[in-house]
C-alpha cells in the first residue's frame, strides 16, 4: 500500500466492497457497521501532526506545493465577470514579480461564471488550470432533484472540468442514505461529456453540519462508494469549516477505501484555511496519513481565497529574507 | 511577643505588549534587567524577530482605525494616557531612579517632564493639520489644499539611556498624528517602557496602535528595518554603526528614516524643547485640487 513515512495507527476501517446499496436499510446497516471514531485520539493525532517545524528548503517546497494545490475560490453573490477574470489572471500568474511561482490548480466559481472563467484562463495562457464549478443548489443543497441535475448539466456544458456538489444534509441526517447515494450517482452521470470525457466530481459534506465524527466517516464511505472523485469538507459558508481532525478522518477514509477497493479518491479541505502555516500543517497530515501518493494537485486541494496571498508573502520572505506585507500582493 | 514574619514581595512578570495583549516572547527567552549598580531588578522578555513580525502585523491591523479616527478623538485618548501616567507617577519615578541611577527627586522631575511632554504632544493632535498643511495659491481656478497624513506603521528604537522621557519623546509624536508604532525599548532600561504598556492598555488606546518589545536592539531592529510592511523607522536608540546598517536595509522599500542625534550627554537632547521636528517626520503631504465654482 502506501510507502514512505505514512504509518497506520489502527486497523483498516472498511465496508464490504460488494456493499448492498439496494435499500436504505441495507445502506444504514453497512454505514453504521463502520467502527465509531475515537474522537479524543483523532483530535490528539491531528494536533500532534500540527506541531512539526518545517523550515528552509522543505518550507520552500511546501509553499510551492500548497500554491499548486489551491482551488482559488470566489463564491459571492456579488461576483461579476470582471472579478472572475481578475481571479483567473491571479491564478495563472500568482506573483508577477517572480515567474517561478507555480500556478494554482483550479478556479472555483458558481456555475454561471464557469464559461467566463474558462475563457479567461485560456486568454491568460493557462488552459491547464481547471475550472471548478459548484453545483446542486450550493451551498444549502435544498432544491428539487431536477434543479440540481440541471445546475450540474449547465456547469458541465459551460466547460467546467470539476463539479463541486453538496450533499443533501437533511436527507443524510434523517437517515435517508439511499437518497444521498443515488443523488451522488445521478450527478456523477451528469458529469459525463458527449466526447467521452467526464468532469471530476467533488462531493461536499459540510462537516460543520454533520455534527459528529461518526457522521463524517459514514458520509465519506457513502460518497466514495457512490463514485466521488474527491471528498470535500465544507462549503465555506457556515461557522465550522475545514478542521484538522475532520480532514484527518477523511484522509484515513480515502486511504482505507483504496486499500479495500483499489480506487484512489482525493481530499479537499475548504474554508477557514488562511495562513501558510495552516496549509503546511495539512500537507504534513497528508504525507503522514496517506503518503506521497496524495501529495499532488491531482489528489489533494485547498479550497481557499485569502490563503494564496499569505503563501505568496511567505514565499517572498524566503526568497528575499525580508518580511513581506500586503502591499506586495494583489488584494481581491 | 514574637516578631511578625517578613512579608515576601510579589514580583512582577514584565511582558511584551503586542496587539493590546501582554504575551511572553514567542521564543520563551528572558534576560536580566539590573539597576545602575548591577543589582537585579526583574526579568524582561527577550523578544525575537518573530515577535517583531507579529507586532508589525498588529500595528498594520490597527492603522486603518487609528489613522481614520478624528484628531479630536486621538487627542482625547492621549490626554487620557497622561492622566493614567499621573496616577502612576510614583511607580514610574521608582523605575526611572533604578534604571538611570539618579536620586528620587531627580527621577520624579524626569517623570514629571515625561508626563508634561505627553500632554504637550496630545495637544498637537488637532493642530498639526493647520500648521503643516494649508491652502496653496495656484494660477488657475482651483482650491489647492495640502494636508498632512500619517505615514503608516512606524518602528521606533527608543533612546537607550533616557528610559522614560526619551521614550515618550519618540513615541508620542509618532502616534499622535495617526501612525501606529512598534517600539523597541531600551535594552538596559526596559522596565519603564513595559510599565507604560499597562498604562496604554487601560487608556482607550485601540489594541495594536502601540506595540512594545524589549530585548536586544540590534536583533529586533534588523528585521524591522528590512520589513516591507514598515513605512518608517526612527533610529534614536541605535548606535552609529548599527544606524548606518539599518539605514541601508530600510532603503529597499523607501522607508522614511529618522537619524539619531549624536549627543554625548544622554539627557540633553530629551530635556530640551523638542520642537515639532519629530511630529512632522512621520507625515506625508496629500494635496488635492478642487475646481472653484461649478
UniProtKB/TrEMBL annotation, chain B:
Domain Aldehyde dehydrogenase positions: 31-257
Keywords linked to the UniProt accession: Oxidoreductase
Record flagged with keyword Oxidoreductase: yes
Coiled coil: none
InterPro entries from the UniProt entry: Ald_DH/histidinol_DH, Ald_DH_N, Aldehyde_DH_dom
Gene3D superfamilies xrefs: Aldehyde Dehydrogenase, Chain A, domain 1
Name the UniProt record assigns to this protein: Aldehyde dehydrogenase family protein
Organism: Streptomyces iconiensis
Amino acid at each position: 500500500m502506501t510507502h514512505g513515512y505514512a504509518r497506520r495507527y489502527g486497523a483498516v476501517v472498511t465496508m464490504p466492497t460488494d456493499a448492498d446499496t439496494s435499500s436504505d436499510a441495507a445502506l444504514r446497516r453497512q454505514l453504521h457497521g463502520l467502527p465509531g471514531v475515537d474522537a479524543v485520539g483523532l483530535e490528539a493525532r491531528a494536533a500532534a501532526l500540527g506541531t512539526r517545524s518545517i523550515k528552509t528548503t522543505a518550507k520552500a517546497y511546501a509553499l510551492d506545493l500548497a500554491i499548486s494545490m489551491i482551488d482559488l475560490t470566489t463564491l459571492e453573490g456579488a461576483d461579476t465577470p470582471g472579478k472572475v477574470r481578475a481571479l483567473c489572471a491571479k491564478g495563472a500568474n500568482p506573483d508577477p514579480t517572480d515567474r517561478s511561482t507555480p500556478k494554482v490548480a483550479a478556479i472555483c466559481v458558481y456555475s454561471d461564471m464557469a464559461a467566463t472563467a474558462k475563457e479567461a484562463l485560456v486568454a491568460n495562457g493557462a488552459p491547464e488550470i481547471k475550472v471548478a464549478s459548484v453545483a446542486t443548489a450550493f451551498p444549502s443543497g435544498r432544491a428539487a432533484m431536477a434543479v440540481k441535475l440541471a445546475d450540474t448539466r449547465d456547469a458541465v456544458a459551460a466547460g467546467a472540468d470539476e463539479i463541486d456538489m453538496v450533499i443533501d444534509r437533511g436527507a443524510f441526517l434523517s437517515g435517508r442514505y439511499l437518497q444521498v447515494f443515488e443523488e451522488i450517482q445521478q450527478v456523477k452521470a451528469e458529469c459525463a461529456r458527449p466526447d467521452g470525457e467526464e468532469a471530476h466530481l467533488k462531493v461536499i459534506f459540510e462537516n460543520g453540519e454533520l455534527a459528529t465524527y461518526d457522521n463524517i466517516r459514514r458520509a465519506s464511505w457513502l460518497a466514495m462508494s457512490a463514485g466521488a472523485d474527491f471528498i470535500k469538507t465544507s462549503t465555506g459558508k457556515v461557522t465550522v469549516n475545514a478542521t484538522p481532525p475532520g480532514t484527518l478522518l477523511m484522509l484515513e477514509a480515502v486511504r482505507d477505501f483504496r486499500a479495500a477497493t483499489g480506487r484512489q479518491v482525493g481530499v479537499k479541505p475548504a474554508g477557514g484555511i488562511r495562513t501558510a502555516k495552516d496549509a503546511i500543517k495539512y500537507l504534513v497530515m497528508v504525507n503522514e496519513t496517506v503518503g506521497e501518493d496524495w501529495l499532488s494537485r491531482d489528489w489533494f486541494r485547498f479550497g481557499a481565497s485569502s490563503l494564496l496571498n499569505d503563501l505568496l508573502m511567505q514565499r517572498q520572505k524566503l526568497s528575499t529574507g525580508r518580511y513581506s506585507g500586503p502591499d506586495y500582493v494583489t488584494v481581491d | 511577643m514574637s516578631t511578625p514574619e517578613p512579608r515576601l514581595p510579589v514580583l512582577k512578570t514584565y511582558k511584551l505588549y503586542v496587539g493590546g495583549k501582554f504575551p511572553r516572547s514567542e521564543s520563551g527567552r528572558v534576560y536580566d534587567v539590573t539597576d545602575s549598580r548591577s543589582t537585579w531588578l526583574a526579568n524582561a522578555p527577550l523578544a525575537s524577530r518573530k515577535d517583531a513580525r507579529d507586532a508589525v502585523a498588529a500595528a498594520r491591523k490597527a492603522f486603518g482605525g487609528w489613522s481614520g479616527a478624528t484628531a479630536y478623538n486621538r487627542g482625547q485618548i492621549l490626554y487620557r494616557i497622561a492622566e493614567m501616567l499621573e496616577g502612576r507617577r510614583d511607580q514610574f519615578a521608582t523605575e526611572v531612579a533604578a534604571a538611570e541611577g539618579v536620586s528620587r527627586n531627580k527621577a520624579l522631575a524626569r517623570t514629571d517632564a515625561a508626563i508634561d511632554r505627553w500632554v504637550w504632544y496630545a495637544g498637537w493632535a488637532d493642530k498639526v493639520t493647520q500648521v503643516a498643511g494649508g491652502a496653496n495659491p495656484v494660477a488657475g481656478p482651483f482650491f489647492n489644499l495640502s494636508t498632512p497624513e500619517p505615514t503608516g506603521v512606524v518602528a521606533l528604537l527608543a533612546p537607550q539611556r533616557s528610559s522614560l522621557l526619551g521614550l515618550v519623546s519618540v513615541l508620542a509624536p509618532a502616534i499622535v498624528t495617526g501612525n501606529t508604532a512598534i517600539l523597541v525599548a531600551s535594552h538596559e532600561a526596559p522596565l519603564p517602557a513595559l510599565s507604560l504598556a499597562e498604562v496604554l492598555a487601560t487608556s482607550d488606546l485601540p489594541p495594536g496602535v502601540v506595540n512594545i518589545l524589549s530585548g536586544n536592539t540590534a536583533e529586533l531592529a534588523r528585521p524591522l528595518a528590512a520589513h516591507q510592511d514598515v513605512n518608517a523607522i526612527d533610529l534614536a536608540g541605535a548606535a552609529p554603526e548599527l544606524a548606518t546598517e539599518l539605514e541601508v536595509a530600510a532603503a529597499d522599500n523607501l522607508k522614511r528614516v529618522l537619524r539619531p542625534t549624536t549627543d554625548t550627554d544622554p539627557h540633553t537632547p530629551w530635556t530640551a524643547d523638542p520642537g515639532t521636528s519629530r511630529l512632522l517626520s512621520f507625515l506625508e503631504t496629500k494635496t488635492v485640487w478642487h475646481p472653484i465654482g461649478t
